[in-house]
Write a structure and sequence with these properties.
70% helix
Length: 292
């Protein structure tokens, strides 16, 4: 290996490690927010959140240099609320959080003058009005384009390859739709049976971003930079089409409706994350190429 090749290899490794760490941090943030929106605040949920606070996970967001300021502010509000109420009985704390969630849901349902998608108004409610196919449609719309295949030399060989390709595309579409219908499967162990039935649409969308960022991290970890780029492009499309146009405004109203800092923090962190991601993900997707 020449000195130049060694420097290039080191630069590639550093970029992969940096992008892997970033994708894992982003995935963890989406994971936490998706669980909060999807999970009804029963005792198990509140106990889990309290443990995260005591273990220092929430406070760590103030120490991460690549975390958006608004996200840090949101998690600081959550941490402050839990620390302030650390001596309260679990049942009392659960009741406090549950009451505020109900209050927010009712307040958001009354915001008819605000232009939100219908699913947004039930995102913090007990039950969605109807199941949504948005994730399935979004995954189909943002599927990674098939890589260009070399031309075949013989007509018979070309026909065989065409048939194989068509079959693979059909199978991929079925698998993608199945993934969309159960995109939260990897966090179901964190949810109660009741919560699984009552998942809100906002949480599903945040969990889909958790899914994409987790897959991106796996791609970086296995040196599949082309796949990582494609996943970033899918994230960009999903953010623009299904989150960035309305969720920050929704979170502003949610922040005003909240009476405790727990849900104020959730609103602030979610708004900051989506605004930051909508700006930075296109940049991440453009800057995947390794330096020469």
């Amino acid at each position: 290996m020449t000195p130049g090749e060694g420097k290039k290899s080191t630069a590639e490794d550093l970029l992969r490690e940096e992008r892997l760490a970033l994708a894992l941090n982003r995935s963890g943030t989406y994971f936490f927010l998706a669980v909060v929106f999807n999970q009804l605040p029963d005792n198990a949920f509140v106990a889990h959140i309290r443990n995260l606070s005591e273990e220092g996970w929430l406070a760590s967001f103030d120490k991460e240099g690549d975390i958006p300021e608004m996200v840090c502010e949101g998690f600081s509000l959550i941490q402050g609320y839990l620390k302030k109420n650390s001596k309260r009985a679990l049942e009392d704390l659960q009741d406090d959080i549950a009451r505020d969630r109900t209050r927010i849901a009712r307040g958001l349902q009354g915001q008819r003058q605000v232009s939100f998608p219908e699913h947004a108004r039930v995102g913090l409610g007990d039950t969605p009005k109807a199941p949504t196919q948005a994730l399935a449609q979004a995954q189909v719309q943002t599927q990674v384009q098939a890589q260009t295949r070399a031309q075949v030399q013989a007509q018979a060989q070309a026909q065989v390859q065409t048939q194989v390709q068509a079959q693979a595309q059909a199978q991929a579409q079925v698998q993608t739709q199945a993934q969309a219908q159960s995109v939260s499967v990897e966090i179901h162990s964190e949810l109660s049976d009741e919560a699984r039935k009552n998942r809100g649409h906002i949480g599903d969308r945040l969990d889909f971003m958790r899914y994409l960022t987790q897959k991106e991290a796996e791609a970086w970890g296995e040196n599949r930079s082309d796949e990582a780029r494609e996943l970033l492009q899918r994230q960009q499309t999903f953010l623009q089409e299904h989150l960035a146009s309305w969720l920050p405004g929704f979170c502003e109203v949610m922040y005003k409706e909240a009476r405790i800092d727990f849900y104020r923090g959730i609103a602030q962190a979610t708004r900051g994350l989506i605004l930051h991601e909508n700006e930075r993900v296109p940049e991440y997707a453009r800057n995947v190429s390794f330096p020469a």
